[in-house]
C-alpha cells in the first residue's frame, strides 16, 4: 500500500441563480474570498471547468478576440491559446491538456467546482508493463457487471449478481450465467463490489456464497453511505468486508494491486476500480457518471464500462402533461444515442487497447412489467463497438456468458483466434425463465404485516425518514399490479413543509407529486427501511407531477440519505396496543 488518500476540495460554489445565469460558451469566474480565477465552458447541458491559469508560466487567460467559435481563451503572458471545449492547447498546437476541475450540481441546483487531490493517484509508484504469458491473465464474463479475473495465481471477481432480481422485482438477469458460477465465486481470492445498488450488491447471490465461504474478502470504497449499510438486516453472514480509502494502491501480491476511485457525480455511493497486474491496467468504470471526476488513465490494457441506459424510472413511469407515449419514445431514443456517443468519445479519448461494454444486461422480465420492457429500449453493445471501431483502433469485445479473454494473447496479437474463447457450441446465452416465486413471496409477506393495521405507521415512517422543511406535497397511493388503487390500501398526503398529513391539499402554492406504488414493494420498503431505488429504479411506481420539476432534494434523500437503521416497529407496535 502506498500514497495518500484522495480528497476533494471545493474551489468555487455558485448559487442556483448564478448557475442559471451562466451563458453558453465561455464564462470567466472568480472566487471573491480567495481571489482565485476559473473558466467554465457551457455547451447546452455539458459543463467543463478549469483554473484560469496557463500551464506554461501561470499567466491569466482572457477572451481570444480571434476566436469566432467562442471556444478559446488567450494567455496574457505569451499568447498561448486554450480551447476550453476540449481543454487542449491550440497554440502551441499538440502541446498540453489543461487539468480539468470536477463540476457538480449541489442539492439546490447550485454549482460546485471541485479539485481532486491527487488528480491521477495511479501515477504513484508507476510500474512498466512486463510480458504476459498466454493464460496468465484471463477475464471471463459471467453476467451483467460480473467478471471473473484470473491474475497470475490470484482470482478476483467484480460485482456478482448471478441469481434473483435487483431493485425489488423490477430487474432480472438477461444472460444465463455459467452453471459453475457459485464454484467460481467460492474460488475467488477477493471480490470487489462497486456500490450498493442491488444489480451490483446482490444479497441473494451473496447469501449462497456466504453459505460456503462467509470469510471471503470483499473490498468496497469508503463511500459516505457504506456499501454494506444493510448487511445486518439482510441476514447474510459475511465476516470479511474491507472498506478501503480512495486513490491508494492495495497490494494483493508482488504482481497484483488495485485502486478504488470515486465518482464525480455520485461520490456518496458510486465507485470504480483500476486493477494492475505486472504493469498492465484493467479499468472498470462500472456505473460511474464521471469516474474520478473525468480524469482516467489512458492507454490501459482493458477498459470496461456500462453502456445500455434505461437504469431509471424516467420517463417510462411518468404520465400527464408532456409525457405522451410519443414524447417518451423520442426522449428515450435521443438519450440512448447521447449515451452511446459519450461512451464512444470516452473510449476514443482514453485509447484502451481493448474495450468491453458490460453492466447493462438486465431485462424487465416479470409479466407485470411488460410495458416497461417494451418501452425501455436499451443500447446495443455491438452498435457501440461499431461506433468505436469507426473512430479508433481500439479492439472491442461484446461478452457472452462464459466467454474468456486472454489478455496476453490479445495484447500480442488482437487477431489471434485463441484471444477470446467463446462458450461451447449450444451454451445457453439468454435466460428464458426466472424463478419469480420465492422473491415475490418475500415481498408479499409485507402486505399483511401488522404494522399496516395501524394508520399511524404513516407518521412513524416519515418522521423516521427525516425529510422536511421543503415545499412539496406528495400523494402516496398503494396499488395492485396494474397501478389501480389496492382494495383497502392506503391513499394519503404528506406535506413536507411541516411534515404533516393533511386530509386535502393545502391552500398555499406548492409543487405536487402523485406516486402510485405497488403495495407489496412499498410495504416491503417501509417495513425494512430500504431506499426508494427499489421503487423508482425498479419501475414499481407511476408518477405525475405538477409543475413538471425534478425535486432533487426529495428524491436524493429517499434514494440515498435515509437513516442507516430501519424504523423501530417493535416499539411502535407496543405503543399501538
Automatic annotation (TrEMBL):
PANTHER family: CYTIDINE MONOPHOSPHATE-N-ACETYLNEURAMINIC ACID HYDROXYLASE (PTHR46522), INACTIVE CYTIDINE MONOPHOSPHATE-N-ACETYLNEURAMINIC ACID HYDROXYLASE (PTHR46522:SF1). Pathway: Amino-sugar metabolism; N-acetylneuraminate metabolism. GO terms for cellular component: cytoplasm. It comes from the Eukaryota. It comes from Equus caballus. The keyword Transport applies. Its main location: cytoplasm. Signal peptide: none annotated. Its EC number is 1.14.18.2. Keywords: 2Fe-2S, Cytoplasm, Electron transport, Iron, Iron-sulfur, Metal-binding, Oxidoreductase, Transport. InterPro entries: CMP-Neu5Ac_hydroxylase_Rieske, Cnh, RibonucZ/Hydroxyglut_hydro, Rieske_2Fe-2S, Rieske_2Fe-2S_sf. It is found in: Cytoplasm. This is Cytidine monophosphate-N-acetylneuraminic acid hydroxylase. Sialic acids are components of carbohydrate chains of glycoconjugates and are involved in cell-cell recognition and cell-pathogen interactions. Catalyzes the conversion of CMP-N-acetylneuraminic acid (CMP-Neu5Ac) into its hydroxylated derivative CMP-N-glycolylneuraminic acid (CMP-Neu5Gc), a sialic acid abundantly expressed at the surface of many cells. GO terms for molecular function: 2 iron, 2 sulfur cluster binding; CMP-N-acetylneuraminate monooxygenase activity; metal ion binding. Belongs to the CMP-Neu5Ac hydroxylase family. Residues 14-112 form the Rieske domain. It catalyses: CMP-N-acetyl-beta-neuraminate + 2 Fe(II)-[cytochrome b5] + O2 + 2 H(+) = CMP-N-glycoloyl-beta-neuraminate + 2 Fe(III)-[cytochrome b5] + H2O.
Amino acid at each position: 500500500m502506498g500514497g495518500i488518500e484522495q480528497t476533494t476540495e471545493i474551489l468555487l460554489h455558485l448559487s442556483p441563480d448564478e448557475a442559471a445565469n451562466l451563458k453558453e460558451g465561455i464564462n470567466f469566474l472568480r472566487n471573491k474570498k480567495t481571489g482565485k480565477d476559473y473558466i467554465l465552458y457551457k455547451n447546452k447541458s455539458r459543463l467543463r471547468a478549469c483554473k484560469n491559469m496557463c500551464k506554461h508560466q501561470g499567466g491569466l487567460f482572457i477572451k481570444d478576440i480571434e476566436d469566432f467559435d467562442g471556444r478559446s481563451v488567450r494567455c496574457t503572458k505569451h499568447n498561448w491559446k486554450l480551447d476550453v471545449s476540449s481543454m487542449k492547447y491550440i497554440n502551441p498546437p499538440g502541446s498540453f491538456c489543461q487539468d480539468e476541475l470536477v463540476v457538480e450540481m449541489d442539492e439546490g441546483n447550485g454549482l460546485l467546482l471541485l479539485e481532486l487531490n491527487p488528480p491521477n493517484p495511479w501515477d504513484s509508484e508507476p510500474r512498466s508493463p512486463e510480458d504476459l504469458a498466454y493464460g496468465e491473465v484471463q477475464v471471463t464474463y459471467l453476467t451483467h457487471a460480473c467478471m471473473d479475473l484470473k491474475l497470475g495465481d490470484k482470482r478476483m471477481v467484480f460485482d456478482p449478481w448471478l441469481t434473483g432480481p435487483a431493485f425489488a422485482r423490477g430487474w432480472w438477469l438477461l444472460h444465463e450465467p455459467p452453471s459453475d458460477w457459485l464454484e467460481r465465486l467460492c474460488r475467488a481470492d477477493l471480490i470487489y463490489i462497486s456500490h450498493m445498488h442491488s444489480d451490483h450488491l446482490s444479497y441473494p447471490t451473496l447469501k449462497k456464497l456466504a453459505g460456503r465461504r462467509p470469510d471471503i474478502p470483499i473490498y468496497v470504497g469508503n463511500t459516505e453511505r457504506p456499501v454494506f449499510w444493510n448487511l445486518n438486516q439482510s441476514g447474510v453472514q459475511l465476516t470479511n468486508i474491507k472498506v478501503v480509502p480512495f486513490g491508494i494502491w492495495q497490494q494483493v501480491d508482488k504482481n497484483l494491486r488495485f485502486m478504488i476511485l470515486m465518482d464525480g457525480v455520485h461520490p456518496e455511493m458510486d465507485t470504480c476500480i483500476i486493477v494492475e497486474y505486472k504493469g498492465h491496467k484493467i479499468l472498470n468504470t462500472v456505473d460511474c457518471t464521471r469516474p474520478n471526476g473525468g480524469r482516467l488513465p489512458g492507454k490501459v490494457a482493458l477498459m470496461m464500462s456500462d453502456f445500455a441506459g434505461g437504469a431509471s424510472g424516467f420517463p417510462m413511469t411518468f404520465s400527464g402533461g408532456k409525457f405522451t407515449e410519443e414524447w417518451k419514445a423520442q426522449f428515450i431514443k435521443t438519450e440512448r444515442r447521447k449515451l452511446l456517443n459519450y461512451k464512444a468519445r470516452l473510449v476514443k479519448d482514453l485509447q484502451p487497447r481493448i474495450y468491453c461494454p458490460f453492466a447493462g444486461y438486465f431485462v424487465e422480465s416479470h409479466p407485470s412489467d411488460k410495458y416497461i420492457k417494451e418501452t425501455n429500449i436499451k443500447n446495443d453493445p455491438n452498435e457501440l463497438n461499431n461506433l468505436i471501431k469507426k473512430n479508433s483502433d481500439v479492439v472491442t469485445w461484446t461478452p457472452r456468458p462464459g466467454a474468456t479473454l486472454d489478455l496476453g494473447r490479445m495484447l500480442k496479437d488482437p487477431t489471434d483466434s485463441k484471444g477470446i474463447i467463446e462458450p461451447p457450441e449450444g451454451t445457453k446465452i439468454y435466460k428464458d425463465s426466472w424463478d419469480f416465486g420465492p422473491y415475490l413471496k418475500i415481498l408479499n409477506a409485507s402486505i399483511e404485516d401488522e404494522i399496516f393495521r395501524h394508520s399511524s405507521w404513516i407518521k412513524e415512517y416519515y418522521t423516521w425518514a427525516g425529510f422536511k422543511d421543503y415545499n412539496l406535497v406528495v400523494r402516496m397511493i398503494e396499488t395492485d399490479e396494474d397501478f389501480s388503487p389496492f382494495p383497502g390500501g392506503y391513499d394519503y398526503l404528506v406535506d413536507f413543509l411541516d411534515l404533516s398529513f393533511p386530509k386535502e391539499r393545502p391552500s398555499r402554492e406548492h409543487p405536487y407529486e402523485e406516486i402510485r406504488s405497488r403495495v407489496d414493494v412499498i410495504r416491503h420498503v417501509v417495513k425494512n427501511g430500504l431506499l426508494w431505488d427499489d421503487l423508482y429504479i425498479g419501475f414499481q411506481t407511476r408518477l405525475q407531477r405538477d409543475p413538471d420539476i425534478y425535486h432533487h432534494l426529495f428524491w436524493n434523500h429517499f434514494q440515498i440519505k435515509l437513516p442507516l437503521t430501519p424504523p423501530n416497529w417493535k416499539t411502535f407496535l407496543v405503543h399501538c396496543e
